[in-house]
Write a structure and sequence with these properties.
heterodimer, A: mainly alpha, 84% helix, 0% strand, B: 260 residues, Rossmann fold, 2 domains, 43% helix, globular
């Protein structure tokens, strides 16, 4: 555990001393703010429009913040995470290989699993900070609006789990190469594929269809955004993070049997 | 202290080192000498447990480098050809990180770092960022990280490469000083370096050991330069003879087939 924390601590320090972290954090929150502003403005317009019609009072009541603001906001933020997480993870292993510090890590009495876990913790903590920062929009809604708090929280937890899944995939991509650009592109392609893998589900037949749907990160994220926390969803995210972390460990270890 | 026996490493179908064997006793400074590309770095990487050998065995302080790799790693200080530095860290933060990685106990962390800083003459630059250090200082930080956990064995890959003459003299003096009862293996292709710092010489050429001897014994009859050139020439002749023999065998075989 001590080794894991040593590696995580150094990794976090290196994330925060590079300007990338601040650019990513600012960009993420700026885009989030833009989405939030527009969603709230549209919601406001809809409410006014419906309440001005006579006899449409029912419809106006049925408009709610969760469906019209929180859900689209979280989905948009997930897409932004999809793009920026590979940019955060790209350096984790690739940079160590370029600097030669990879040799230091692998000639220290530290397990490859500990190295991967340390990096996962540090990068995961940074993505956690991004998600927490975007929590400001939820707080604003809770203070001046009346969203369903449980649904809101479940959605944000979903966003965090999506972020952690992307981190694990990004680390794996980074462990494959010493070129950061390649690491970022491979990470982006893999996360994007996981995002859209359910597209052919409706036409893929009775067996393959549900399999694809279950593999897609969007399906599980969507249930959490709607406020449903099921065991199957938690197992899915747990398996994703642990599975990609395991593959990363194998990839790091592979230098010892090549 | 270090025992290497019949060690072979292949990358694909290229053989980097082939069946090498040598030993180093406690407290010895061994000069690992050879032209560029002879297999020095590969051998050192195997000894430090970074790469596995294709065949053969190596042990450090009685522990096998493959099956007891972590025990070996605890006892080795390693300075790769390029010092493994994180540019965004300060000298003292970097040393503390390496000390934790190498398993220095929490209570001894500060003392270990101070000792390493002092011995390598880095106390004045401890707060500087590694990216701002000159080549000579970076090399010293590399040495400091190799000794921070007080290892029994030091493995230094070309520790003086790219330094100016004054820095070279400083680093050599430092290596001699660091010896104590440590075993040091230092690779180089600079002959005077061996003559000045080492007790024992292992000469490697194209992946094979051509000579292993005490420096005093080896240089009793002729200067090291002469011996080195003579050994390499003899090795080259031997290889050529071997090649012509096998080439002749190849030419013979189809000829015999055609005759039938």
């Amino acid at each position: 555990m001590r080794n894991v924390l040593a590696i995580a601590g150094r990794e976090l320090r290196s994330i925060f001393t590079s300007p990338v972290a601040y650019v990513v954090l600012t960009g993420f929150l700026l885009l989030g703010g833009w989405f939030f502003f527009n969603l709230v403005a549209r919601f406001n317009m809809l409410v006014q429009m419906y309440s001005s019609f006579q006899g449409a009072g029912d419809t106006a009541e049925r408009l709610n913040l969760n469906d019209f603001v929180v859900a689209p906001l979280l989905h948009n933020l997930a897409v932004v995470l999809l793009i920026v997480v590979p940019m955060i993870t790209m350096r984790s292993f690739a940079e160590e290989k370029r600097l030669g510090t990879y040799e230091l890590l692998l000639t220290s009495p530290v397990g490859t699993g500990q190295i991967v876990l340390g990096k996962l913790l540090a990068t995961g903590a940074f993505v956690g900070l991004m998600v927490a920062g975007s929590g400001i929009f939820g707080v604003i809604l809770a203070i001046w609006g009346n969203p369903e708090i449980q649904v809101l929280v479940s959605g944000y937890v979903g966003l965090l789990l999506v972020g952690l899944t992307f981190v694990a995939i990004g680390l794996f991509a980074s462990s494959l190469t010493e070129n950061q650009i390649i690491a970022a592109v491979v990470g982006l392609v893999m996360t994007l594929l996981l995002f859209v893998i359910a597209w052919p589900a409706d036409t893929a037949g009775d067996i393959l269809g549900p399999v694809l749907r279950h593999l897609a990160v969007t399906e599980h994220f969507d249930t959490m955004v709607r406020g449903i926390v099921s065991t199957s969803t938690l197992v899915y995210f747990g398996t994703m993070v642990a599975g990609w972390a395991f593959l990363t460990q194998r990839s790091v270890e592979s230098i010892r049997w090549r | 202290m270090i025992e290497v026996s019949e060690l072979t490493k292949r990358y694909g179908d290229r053989t980097a080192v082939e069946g090498i064997s040598f030993r180093a006793a406690r407290g010895q400074i061994v000069g690992f000498l050879g032209p560029n590309g002879a297999g020095k770095t590969t051998t050192m990487r195997i000894l430090t447990g970074f790469l596995p050998p294709s065949s053969g065995t190596a042990s450090v302080a009685g522990f096998d480098v493959v099956t007891q790799a972590d025990e070996v790693r605890r006892r080795i200080g390693y300075l790769p050809e390029n010092p493994p530095l994180y540019p965004e860290m300060t000298v003292s933060a970097y040393l503390a990180f390496v000390a934790r990685l190498k398993g220095v106990a929490r209570g001894e962390l500060r003392g270990a770092c101070e000792r390493a800083l002092e011995r390598t003459g880095l106390a004045d630059v401890r707060g500087r960022l590694l990216r701002h250090l000159s080549k000579g200082y970076r090399q010293r930080v590399g040495l400091a990280q190799a000794i921070v956990h007080d290892p029994e064995v030091l493995i230094l890959d070309e520790p003086t490469i790219g330094l100016d003459p004054r820095q070279i003299i400083e680093i050599r003096a430092l290596v001699r000083e660091l010896r104590g009862d440590r075993t040091v293996i230092l690779s180089t292709h600079i002959l005077p370096e061996v003559a000045q710092t080492c007790d024992k010489v292992v000469i490697i050429n194209e992946g094979r050991i051509v000579c292993e001897d005490d420096l005093a014994h080896l240089t009793a009859t002729a200067p090291l330069e002469e011996i080195f050139m003579r050994l390499l020439a003899a090795d080259a002749r031997e290889r050529e003879a071997g090649l012509t023999r096998s080439a002749a065998a190849e030419v013979d075989a189809p000829g015999a087939g055609g005759g039938l």
